[in-house]
Design brief:
The complex is a heterodimer. Chain A has helices at 2-7, 10-52, 56-67, 72-83, 86-93, 101-107, 113-118, 128-156, 167-177, 185-201, 209-214, 230-246. By secondary structure, chain A is an all-alpha fold. Classes of the chains: A mainly alpha, B mainly alpha.
Chain lengths: 249, 103
C-alpha cells in the first residue's frame, strides 16, 4: 500500500520523467566506469559493484587505487572518503524524511548527488518523492551503462583517447549550473571557496578529504537569527546614520 | 577472495551505512533554523569540489589535462542551453578526444 502511494504520487512520477534524460547522460558516465573497471574487477565485478555500491565517485576512486597497484584497504578507504559527503548531505535531507528511522534510512539510500541536489526546495527542505523518482531511472541506467562498458570496452579502445575522463566532471558541471551558483552571491562564493579549498588540498590529502573539507564553504550560508541579539541592535544604530548621510548625496 | 571483490563488498556495506547515517544522526529532531542556509549552500560547495577533484586531482598532485578544455566546452554548451545535458557530455568527450588526437 505504502509503495503504491509513493509510485502513484505526482512528485514521484515527475521525478521518473525528469530522470530519464539524466539517466541517459549517466549511461555515458557508467560506460566510462565499465571500461575503466573491467581490467581491474572483471566484467562481473564491475557490474555487481555498480548494482550494490551505486556511487559514481567512490567507484571511480577505489578502482583507480586498485588500478594503480594499491591494496583493497587503500581502495576501500578512498571509496569511503569519497562517500563521506553523504553524511552532511544526509543530515540535510533527514528533516524532510517521513516515517520511522528504519524507513528513513531506506529512503536515504536513494540519495545520489544529482537527485539530492535536484530535489532541493530551498529553506533547507527536500522533495523526497521527487528525489526517489529521479533515482530510479538513474539506477537502471547506471547498471546498464556499466554492463555495456564492461562488455564492449575493448571495442572502444583507450578510454582517455576518446575523452571519457571528461564525462563525469561535465555531468557534475551541468548539475552545478542548475544550482544558485552564478545566480546568487552567496552560492557563487560557496562554490568558489569550495573549489579553492579542494584545489589546495589535492596535493596534500588523500582523495575524498578535499571534498569533505570543501563542505566547510557551505557555512557561508549560516544566518544568525535576527531577534534578541544585542549586537544586531547596535549594528542597526550604526547603519541608520550612515544611510541618512548617503541619502542626500 | 580477490582484492577486487573485497573492495566491492566492503564499499557496498559502508555506502549503505554512510547513506543511512544522516537520518540516524538526526533521529527526527528538527535542525536549527540557522542551518537552512548552510544546507542550501551545501549543493554548490559539494558539486564544485567534486568537479575540481575529478578533473584536476591525480595521484596527489594537480594535473591539467585536455579534459579541462572539454569540460569548459561543456560549460559553454550549458550556458547556451541549460537542459542540453547529453549534448554537453558528448561535447566534453569530443573536445577532449580531439585535443588528445592533435597531441
Amino acid at each position: 500500500m505504502r509503495l503504491r502511494a509513493l509510485t502513484d504520487h505526482p512528485s514521484f512520477r515527475r521525478g521518473l520523467r525528469d530522470g530519464v534524460p539524466v539517466a541517459i547522460a549517466g549511461v555515458a558516465v557508467a560506460v566510462s566506469f565499465g571500461v575503466l573497471a573491467r581490467p581491474v574487477l572483471g566484467t562481473a565485478g564491475a557490474i555487481v559493484m555498480s548494482a550494490i555500491v551505486f556511487a559514481g565517485s567512490a567507484q571511480f576512486g577505489s578502482v583507480a587505487v586498485l588500478a594503480a597497484g594499491g591494496g583493497p584497504l587503500a581502495a576501500i578507504a578512498a571509496g569511503i572518503l569519497l562517500n563521506l559527503r553523504y553524511v552532511p548531505m544526509g543530515v540535510a535531507l533527514a528533516p524532510s524524511l517521513r516515517g520511522g528511522l528504519g524507513l528513513q534510512a531506506i529512503k536515504a539510500q536513494a540519495m545520489v548527488d544529482y537527485s539530492w541536489a535536484a530535489a532541493m526546495r530551498g529553506g533547507g527542505s527536500f522533495d523526497v518523492r521527487y528525489m526517489v523518482g529521479l533515482t530510479v531511472p538513474m539506477y537502471i541506467g547506471w547498471i546498464s551503462g556499466t554492463a555495456a562498458g564492461a562488455f564492449a570496452g575493448e571495442l572502444l579502445g583507450d578510454p582517455e583517447a576518446i575523452g571519457l575522463d571528461a564525462v563525469f566532471p561535465a555531468f557534475f558541471l551541468a548539475l552545478l549550473m542548475g544550482t544558485d551558483a552564478g545566480r546568487t552571491l552567496k552560492a557563487t562564493l560557496a562554490a568558489g571557496a569550495a573549489g579553492l579549498i579542494a584545489l589546495a588540498l589535492i596535493p596534500v590529502a588523500p582523495p575524498g578529504v578535499p571534498i569533505i573539507a570543501a563542505c566547510i564553504a557551505a557555512l557561508i550560508g549560516f544566518e544568525r537569527r535576527r531577534p534578541e541579539r544585542p549586537t544586531d541592535g547596535r549594528l542597526d544604530e550604526v547603519e541608520a546614520p550612515a544611510a541618512a548621510i548617503r541619502e542626500p548625496g | 577472495m580477490s582484492a577486487g571483490w573485497i573492495t566491492i563488498l566492503a564499499l557496498a556495506l559502508t555506502t549503505v551505512l554512510v547513506r543511512a547515517s544522516g537520518p540516524l544522526l538526526v533521529r527526527g529532531r528538527p535542525l536549527p533554523p540557522q542551518l537552512a542556509g548552510v544546507i542550501d549552500m551545501l549543493g554548490p560547495a559539494v558539486l564544485t569540489a567534486l568537479i575540481v577533484v575529478e578533473l584536476l586531482g591525480g595521484d596527489g598532485r594537480i594535473v591539467v589535462s585536455a579534459a579541462l578544455a572539454g569540460v569548459l566546452a561543456a560549460g559553454v554548451v550549458l550556458l547556451w542551453r541549460r537542459n542540453a545535458l547529453l549534448t554537453a557530455i558528448v561535447v566534453a568527450a569530443a573536445v577532449t578526444a580531439g585535443l588528445r588526437a592533435l597531441g
